[in-house]
Amino acid sequence: MRLPSQTTVPARSGTQRSAIAEGILDAAERLAQTRGFNGFSYADIAAQLSVTKASLHYHFPSKADLGHALIERYSRVFAQALAAIDAHTEDAGEKLKRYVRLYDDVMSSERMCLCGMLAAEYATLPVAMQDELRSFFDANERWLTDVLEEGRRAGRLTFRESARKRAQAVLGALEGAMLVARAYGDVRRFRSTAAQVLADLGVERPRAAHA
Amino acid sequence: MRLPSQTTVPARSGTQRSAIAEGILDAAERLAQTRGFNGFSYADIAAQLSVTKASLHYHFPSKADLGHALIERYSRVFAQALAAIDAHTEDAGEKLKRYVRLYDDVMSSERMCLCGMLAAEYATLPVAMQDELRSFFDANERWLTDVLEEGRRAGRLTFRESARKRAQAVLGALEGAMLVARAYGDVRRFRSTAAQVLADLGVERPRAAHA
DNA sequence: GTCTATAGGTGGATAGAC
DNA sequence: GTCTATCCACCTATAGAC
Question: Model's pTM, two decimal places?
Answer without folding.
Answer: 0.93
